Amino acid sequence: MTFIVVLPTYNERLNLERVTAGILKHEGASLLIVDDNSPDGTGQLADELVGRHEGRVSVMHRSGPRGLGRSYIDGLRRALTTGAEAICQMDADLSHDPAYLPDLVAALARSDLVIGSRYLHGVSVVNWPLHRIVLSAFANRYIRAISGLSPNDCTSGFRAWRREALAKLPLEDARTNGYAFLTEMLFEAARRGCTIGEVPIVFVERQEGYSKVSSTVLFESLLTPWRLILRGGRLRPPPGRSL
Ligand SMILES: Nc1nc2c(ncn2[C@@H]2O[C@H](COP(=O)(O)OP(=O)(O)O)[C@@H](O)[C@H]2O)c(=O)[nH]1
Ligand SMILES: [Mg+2]
Fold it and tell me: Which residues of the chain have pLDDT under 50?
């Protein structure tokens, strides 16, 4: 299956070459980097990579207000215009190992959308401080309890979509901009009857660069499940699924 990876970047110069090499190792893979005018020169490095890997790497240079959600909207819409059969999304900081991409794409044989999940068999996160693990575990329970979503990892940014499933989502209407955008996409997909699968991944905290999680972004994540059910109603979890 051919697939394109949408990779949002903000100050990822130290990680970009390695993650690009890891992605392009796979046959049928192409890459779309969505850079938010990073002050550290990530955008220029992305241009160099386009030259080095002609036809397989492309870049969108965003200007104006930055944000992960906005970058995903622009990148995923562009990815839909390519001929790729599957569209993947992942972080650029090597927390998401590109070696898992074939597992995610292969699992699309059974589901419309596949999540690379940190919480399928206990907790598979390396080098996170305890407070981040607790926060993430709490966020997932909270999101499931309010929205009715059923995946174990609703906030993972490592995902693969069947092209037709992603094309059903009203990307341009998304209201969230930070990490909450990931929850919003999942909710909109479930509401449209998309089947959601999960494959286990080990998430390793970044070694280079810094995290861009901010308190504004976390606050948006707390409000989002309520906004989603006010707009679309609570989802019905599959029978027997406990929260
Ligand atoms: N284009 C763009 N990418 C972003 C933005 N904020 C974060 N990212 C990227 O999103 C991914 C995850 O961000 P990160 O800061 O590592 O979040 P964390 O893993 O939750 O700590 C990385 O590839 C970042 O470079 C943004 O405002 N714009
Ligand atoms: Mg990260």
Answer: none
